[in-house]
Design a protein that fits this description.
Radius of gyration: 12 Å
Number of strands: 0
Number of helices: 5
Strand content: under 5%
Distance between the termini: 22 Å
Low-confidence stretches: none
Largest sheet: none
Shape: globular
């Protein structure tokens, strides 16, 4: 599904959009991680995305799942979802910045 995957070890702070960016800039980054492939199924990805994220992989799973969810709905994220998406981006950037790439 994802043509431009970036693994956690290859991810740099510069790859991550600012949490202030628009959805059109955030969505392509969200799709650099394929949560369906990583977790082996849509159901497992959804299960992981529903839990509070603790690792970089979990954070990226949540962001990926948000991107897929909104794509399936054919809409842009609403304000409440964008707040969560922006928090995920901020946390992803902090994990990468600190070298915590799990």
């Amino acid at each position: 599904m994802v043509d431009n995957e970036i693994g956690n070890a290859e991810l740099s702070v510069g790859d991550i959009p600012s949490f202030k960016e628009s959805w059109s800039r955030i969505e392509p980054f969200a799709l650099t991680f394929d949560g369906y492939k990583y977790w082996g199924s849509i159901e497992k990805c959804a299960e992981i995305a529903a839990k509070p994220p603790a690792t970089l992989t979990h954070l990226r799973t949540c962001l990926f799942f948000e991107a897929r969810r909104w794509a399936h709905q054919g809409n842009q994220p609403d304000a409440k979802s964008m707040k969560r998406i922006r928090a995920l981006l901020f946390a992803i950037k902090e994990k990468v910045r600190s070298g915590d790439l799990r």
